[in-house]
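Fold sample X.
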Amino acid sequence: MTDPLADRLRSAGCVFAEDEAVLLRAEAAGQVVEALVARRVAGEPLETVLGWAELDGVRVAVDPGCFVPRRRTILLARLAVAADPTVVLELCCGVAPVATLVAASCPHAEVHAADVDPLPLAAARRNLPQGQVHQGDLYDALPAGLRGRVEVLAANAPYVPTAEIDQMPREARDHEPLVALDGGADGLDLHRRIAAGAATWLRPGGALLIETSVHQASATAAICAEAGLHPEVVRDEELDATAVRAHRPPGLG
């Protein structure tokens, strides 16, 4: 016997219709679940319909209209956790998935997250009840007392080239903010700005972690090197994730 709810989801183009039906039923019943299904069938991302995304076993709150954290961003979080930082900062944080996973694994860490868009910061504050969430344009958002103290600076900044936005899945184009997707002509505008200012905020030996793509990785690494950092490309095939990890050498001002 087929599941009529899964059939509706499949007809709407949901590839994992059976799994989604289970998740939606677990969230609600009756008229409430019908309202959730209607939103999903209309093309809204599953995560914003549910109100959360699961990353490495941790549920991260995601509100409608927010950028939805992808599974590949787990790589940034794992690299950050592996450093066992006492002070961590997530820039371009959205709902702050990296900071949230670090806080869950490193309860001793002082955790900061910052974004220019106030909408996802409401969810970020729920995800980081013990953290500090700041609104503003990159480093302008940060308190002066954080300068030179950050051990891990993680950023999943937008890195989709402007001309490729129209090629993204419809649920991203229609339901996620353009400011969280558009990385400029070559996709690397934010990478340049983040790398240029990183040394001021990182402590000596601290690391900048930037999510990027396979074909952009060498360019992102070169940007970090131009800023005086020591970069390396990190690839995780299982997560289909690529990042650049760049350390601040001693003596770099």
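Fold sample Y, listed below.
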Amino acid sequence: MRRRDFIALVGSASAAVAWPFTARVQPVGQMRRIGVLTGLAADDAEGQARLRAFVQELQQLGWSEGRNVQIDFRLGASEPERARPYAAELVALAPDVILAHGSPITEALKKATGAIPIVFVQVIDPVGAGFVASLARPGGNVTGFLAFEYELGAKWLELLKEIAPGVTRAAVISDSSIAAGKGQLHAIEAAAPTVGIEVTSIGVRDAGEIERAIAAFAKNSNGGLIVTGTPLAVIHRELLVSLAMRHRLPAVYPNSFHVTGGGLVSYGPNTIEPFRRAAGYVDRILKGEKPADLPVQAPIKYELRINLKTAKALGLRVPPTLLARADEVIE
């Protein structure tokens, strides 16, 4: 993707003002190259915000597109069959470092190269997936930033019971094809007896499966929904929110954009900040540090958001104690 295409991608008004950026400029010399591979499409507003944060942080660190760095983007690699050829394309360009978004994309890049440094964002279990030897000492060509820890799944279940005490059944939307999906499900299942909710796992791979599974689950009463943190939750976020409302299912989501889009409640890390932090690792690698020596980092903060309009539509009264803990309340 060329520079002018990227400016159009992230929004000309906000992106163009940053070109060029002169603070903390790197010495003029060899043009460096960065690859970026993400599953979000070019017209996805959330994806635009994430990439904009990454590029703007690079500029703050002195890397200016077209002057001392070239950035090659591959977007929309949401399925493994698309991630693999895109990964091969980026590797063939021989970039100095690649930014990888999510576990499936990181896996595709890891298989494509053992030499080019890879910085991932929003991966849940990089050790279990075989991307790194340990969080403290990655040991190879891959490092990055965790999406969250598995224990967050128990918190989602607790929130569902707190905001909707009448819920006795919960459908857990997960992607069973990835290890992270199984890990989140196990954490939720372990907490279920204490919370008093019967958990049903719904493994889905596409929009059609999501719609059919939720419709079938909603036929019985006292149900709720937990959407786990997977690429599916981002790609199909509008569908998940609309289905929860259509079937009147109180739902807990992993990302704030689910709530701003009409979802009931979300609890999870900021989705933009990891891209800024990843730019810092990319900068350090371009300056000579090795991924093997850069520890995998966890989120700094988890945020609680509640949509009162949605709660009212579902006939729920949000406890004052829960409102007091919220980072944002949408009215």
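Sample Y note: The radius of gyration is 20 Å.
Also: The first helix runs from residue 3 to 10.
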